[in-house]
Design brief:
The chain is of the alpha/beta class. It is built from eight helices and seven strands; from the N terminus they run αβαβαβαβαβαβαβα.
């Protein structure tokens, strides 16, 4: 190879390195995306619960204590007062707490300063109750996920988690139907959205008793199918 070829070859290598560096920079600047499910790397899924804590949270914890597994509870900041003990119990038993904002406003109706305040107030209520801030966010109604993911990441509130299985338990009185929906759709990596509380803007059932009864069916059925029931953070590792 003569000098001219060597120079040309080294110039091409430098150009390639520069392009690769710019590609890495672009990847690093990509907007955070909401997470709907995890890659099916192992036979596990995440059961999640929104809008609590409430009178139905402790019975749900009792069922996990009986059958095994862990869950992620997306806590509504406005519901924390008076329920601090049940949140501390959830953490002590290996479950995970996430931020479901403070007052359950539809994020699509909030401007960005309002959205940041809702995230901040929700995180602060949880941290005050249990001593640690949550590192996951789920917006009410799983709404406006792309924007919430960006605002949450910019504010240091963590990753935004949506759902891949939604049995609409908040409006379904039939526990069998809730359980059958989850069992029909759940696969490895699924993030299942259930509810352990009733939001201030609830338009469905006034109770979460059907969710508790559905869980009595779901937990043994999922475990019998060989699923590990893990927190969202563990599922995403």
């Amino acid at each position: 190879m003569d000098a001219e070829q060597r120079t040309a070859g080294s110039g091409g290598a430098r150009r390639f390195a520069a392009l690769r560096s710019r590609a890495r920079d672009r990847l690093g600047r990509r907007r955070p995306a909401p997470i709907y499910a995890a890659p099916p790397r192992w036979h596990a899924l995440a059961l999640t619960f929104d809008d609590g804590p409430s009178e139905w949270t402790a019975p749900i914890l009792d069922l996990f204590a009986t059958h095994g597994g862990h869950a992620t509870f997306f806590v509504l900041g406005a519901a924390v007062a008076g329920c601090e003990d049940v949140l501390r119990r959830a953490l002590a038993e290996g479950h995970e707490l996430g931020n479901h904002t403070f007052a359950h406003h539809d994020p699509g109706t909030l401007d960005e300063p309002e959205l940041r305040r809702e995230l901040s107030r929700g995180a602060e209520a949880i941290a005050t109750a249990v001593g640690t801030a949550p590192t996951l966010v789920r917006p009410p109604y799983c709404g406006d996920g792309e924007r919430v993911a960006r605002v949450a990441a910019e504010g240091g509130f963590g990753r935004t988690i949506l759902r891949s299985v939604d049995p609409a338990d908040w409006r379904t009185p039939d526990a069998d139907a809730i359980a059958e929906h989850v069992l029909a759709e759940a696969v490895a990596g699924s993030i299942v959205c259930l509810h352990d509380g009733v939001s201030p803007r609830n338009s469905g059932l006034a109770s979460r008793e059907s969710t508790v009864r559905a869980l009595e069916l779901l937990l043994p059925a999922l475990l019998q199918r060989g699923y590990r029931l893990v927190t969202v953070s563990e599922l995403l590792r």
